[in-house]
Amino acid sequence: MAAPKSRIEDLANREYKYGFVTAIDEDAIPRGISEDIVRTISAKKNEPEWMTEWRVKAYQRWLTMVEPTWQNVTYPPIDYQNIIYYSAPKPKKQLASLDEVDPEILKTFEKLGISLGEQKRLSNVAVDAVFDSVSVATTFKAKLAEAGVIFCSFSEAVQNHPDLIRKYLGSVVPYSDNFFATLNSAVFSDGSFCYVPKGVRCPMELSTYFRINAADTGQFERTLIVAEEGSYVSYLEGCTAPMRDTNQLHAAVVELVAMDNAQIKYSTVQNWYPGDKDGKGGIYNFVTKRGKCAGRKSKISWTQVETGSAITWKYPGVILQGDDSVGEFYSVALTNNYQQADTGTKMIHLGKNTRSTIISKGISAGHGQNTYRGLVKISKNATGARNYSQCDSLLMGDRCGAHTFPYIEVKNPTAQLEHEASTSKIGEDQLFYCRQRGLSNEDAVSLIVNGFCKEVFRELPMEFAVEAQKLLTVSLEGAVG
Amino acid sequence: MLEIKNLHVSVDGHAILKGINLSVKAGEVHAVMGPNGSGKSTLAQVIAGRETFEVTKGEVIFQGKNLLEMSPEQRAGEGLFLAFQYPVELPGIANMYFLRAALNAIRTYRGEDEIDAIDFLALCKEKVKIVEMDERLMKRSVNEGFSGGEKKRNEILQMSILNPKLAVLDETDSGLDIDALRVVAGGINALRSPDRAMVVITHYQRLLEYVVPDRVHVLSEGRIVRSGGKDLALELEEKGYAWIGEGAATAAPAGAGG
After folding, report:
1. Does residue B211 lie in a domain region?
2. Rounded CA separation A95/A105 (Å)
3. CATH number, domain at B126?
4. Is the same domain home to A368 and A478?
5. Contact status of B158 with chain A (Cβ, < 8 Å)
6. What is the pLDDT of residues B17-66, one digit of tens each?
7. Which domain holds residue A107?
8. Engineering a disulfide at A411: which of A127, A294, A380, A444 sits with its beta carbon 3.0 to 4.6 angstroms away?
9. Which of A390, A429, A436 is best to mutate for the B interface (most B CBs within 10 A)?
10. Are both A126 and A73 inside the same structural domain?
11. Does B258 reside within a domain?
């Protein structure tokens, strides 16, 4: 069986498909962080004073904070003075239309399979493309505006919708929230903003595509989504980065706010460069994502498929403030080679009859380390709260690890919580069974893994579900040989 | 159809099969019997291409091709089917989906077009009746939560849909009650045909009352120690495997079957 095995190894060693670098001029500021740098970023973005002061306040707070070490991942100390905090493609001027976007950048997104030309668009998906520190293009603005939906880069929102930004920025993730969120609050460069007015069902999927291009650059973007009473929006997020043998930091913040009867569905397919097969390079993906079900019967769903990054460290959570509100978290996290992931969710039940569901699927292969860490907190007033948690781990090979840390805090006796966990291995006997029935080794692995992830994939929008399945298959090639 | 010549197999340097000779022609059903640990299941797994076993000597020729050079999936494509003694559970993969993926993989291997969903559904409905299987099991995950009998019926269902040239059934009768045994045997008999061969591995004579073999071979300590017609199974049932042990010591080297 030597022949097929070595072919699979070739596939495993195949290069990361999105690892190319785009040759364009970048407008970057000097390395390092200081109050001056924070002010420089703010000035470059021509921000109003309140925004500058908010950043400075965050920077001052950050100076007093210590980088956390409780997570189950290991990495060498990050030198925060060796990061470039702002890098933008030149020339940076106000773009009147897509035709004015640097053709090199358009080509980059074409290569990534993201067409920014509306005529060649993905069916019914509006895209905001973020290249290094800035948003380079947002498609379908006009069509969305007809429905009253605001979808634009964060920078534009600060200029054009300052009242909304002032009202909601930091309302879910305060500037002082945690080390990385606070750093982001000081130096964030761009991101996406979405506002869905009362009673509007957003007519298309919204999507932000993040691309890190420049070397030694951190990406610090913010996403803010506000869904007014009775509205609905589905939002997709995709990410890639070039292959580099140094690590790059990605510390984003995402805030979601759902009012009465509003619903936000947030899906992520994260494919940052994971480092090479020896664990060299890759993105540190340290992200704070949180949603607030502010209104009654509101609902926020997080669905994530995490296949990239050297280290993934994030806990998309939901604050269930409104009575009868619903929080959901569906996650597939895959670690291959030397990747590490410490991910999970926080469900904070404050309102009455609030419900949350957690489905987490961790897949470890190679030397990958995969940790689920989740908090379910039922506060004193959350009468009738319910949670269902299910954490399943799949191991491939005998050098990887799976860990589960569920935290539960219950202060109300009427709460009902269920927790199920399982750990399994892709058995040699399962593979043999599939192959005896005619399936190739790769198809068998893909079939078994997709079967394992089925409950999560069915939560993804159709096009993304297909992508996610493919991505998982590619990421696992050679994991079982 | 199948020619096994002087097959030696070991695991971790420990010899399990010590010179098996077996010849099975199209249309024939051969039974391989023997006590626990005699190497019956090893023989089945080696034919199907399990990599945990090391073939140290000998050859296995299937329809003129060297089977030992092929991967398990190539063997399946060539028309080999193994009904597992312990069918594996595949969580999250619908039985119907799995079976169609398998059938299409085999069809693709043979250069045939894939079967479409509608034709497949019709094929499935027809075959499900033969093994008297609850149709709802087609929508459930492969073998997950199936009873022992349901798993074995599922194996026979897969066999009838994949339509192999050579089927090796590894203790398909174990763990079945008498009704399930009758149904499973009926499924096997329905597949007997002049251009298909079967090797039925079993511990007991019971299954052979329903599936009457053309030849019976007795395996002991990695060798075929006796071969004969269907009456050999009855004799064995009556006298026990100990009788073979005695006989083997004095018998001339066992002849190849059929």
Report:
1. yes
2. 13
3. 3.40.50.300
4. yes
5. yes
6. 999 999 999 999 999 998 888 899 999 999 999 988 999 999 999 999 99
7. 25-253+272-286
8. A380
9. A436
10. yes
11. no
Q: Is this complex scored with an ipTM above 0.85?
A: yes
**Residue A259 in domain:** no
Q: Which of residues 107-146 of A touch B (CB under 8 A)?
A: none
Q: What chain B residue is nearest to A430 in terms of C-alpha separation? A: B88
- Taking the Cβ of residue A429 and every Cβ of chain B, the question of whether any pair is shorter than 8 Å is answered with yes
- Check if B71 contacts A (Cβ < 8 Å): yes
Q: Give a yes or no: residue B99 inside a domain.
A: yes
- Main-chain dihedrals φ then ψ at residue B92, nearest 5 degrees: 80, 0
In chain B, the number of structural domains is 1
Cβ-contact B204, B22 below 8 angstroms: no
- Using a CB-CB distance cutoff of 8 angstroms, which residues of chain A are in contact with residue B106? 437-438
Buried b / exposed e over B36-68, threshold 16 CB at 10 Å, is eebbbbbbbbbbbbbeebeeeebebebeeeebb
Instruction: Please state whether the predicted TM-score (pTM) of the whole model is above 0.80.
Output: no
Task: Name the domain count of chain A.
Answer: 2
Shared domain for A37 and A131, answered yes or no, is yes
pLDDT digits (tens, 9 = 90+) for A394-407: 888 788 888 889 99
A186 closest CA partner among A60, A83, A66, A30:
A60
User: Is A174 in the same domain as A55?
Assistant: yes
A138 forms beta bridges with A128
- Cross-chain residue pair A451–B141, CB shorter than 8 Å: yes
**Domain range for residue B32?**
2-250
Chain B positions touching A427 (Cβ under 8 A) are 88
Chain B residue with minimum CA distance to A451: B92
